[in-house]
Amino acid sequence: MDLHIKDEAALLVNPASIDPDTLVPYGVKFKPISLPAYLYPGKAILLTTVEVVSIPVFFSGLIGMRSTYARLGLLTPPTVADPGFEGTLTLELYNASPNIILLQPGDSIWHILLVSTPFEPKYSGRYQHQSGLTLPKSL
Questions:
Q1: DSSP code string of 90-105
Q2: Alpha-carbon span 1 to 4, nearest angstrom
Q3: Active-site residue set
Q4: Which of 38, 76, 78, 138 is least surrounded, with the fewest CB atoms within 10 Å of its CB?
Q5: Domains in the chain: how many in total?
């Protein structure tokens, strides 16, 4: 299934040191922006999907880049939607190319592949039932 970007996004501004265990910001801030927007070389952006996904128990969702966008030099870190996860997906997009790339609402940048899992862990993490762009939460 294809995943489309919504019109809301956030850019990381003032990059600094981050403690992933507590997400103590140490000066790290996200700036909300609206799309369309340009993604400059070497920059990352958080985007959210239009689609609300519901991953069945006994399945995991593997999110990957669509080939056209990957060929343009855009990268998304390997991402898994856990069994039982429900909500929109917030995904990072990084511009590894030397080009400025226009991102528009509705662009179909990713796809999700459901893979069967041999166990039944129902996701109950801090991102369950998220709606819209969700910034990182501490562990």
A1: EEEEEE-SSS-EEE-T
A2: 10
A3: 92
A4: 78
A5: 1
CA distance 48 to 88: 7
Give the per-residue SS3 of 19-85: ECCCCECCCCEEEEEECCEEECCCCEEEEEEEEEEECCCCEEEEEEECHHHHHCCEECCCEEECCCC
CA distances to 38, 109, 113 from 41, in Å? 10, 17, 28
Model confidence at 9, pLDDT cuts 50, 70, 90, reads very high
Q: CATH number of the domain at 72, please.
A: 2.70.40.10
DSSP letter, residue 6: E
Say if residues 59 and 32 touch (Cβ distance below 8 Å): no
What backbone phi and psi angles, to 5 degrees, belong to 71? -70, -20
Q: Is residue 60 part of a domain?
A: yes
Mean pLDDT for the stretch of residues 39-54: 94
- Find the range with the poorest average confidence among 16-25, 89-98, 109-118: 16-25
User: Is 114 in contact with 61 (CB distance < 8 Å)?
Assistant: yes
**Section 93-99 average pLDDT:** 96
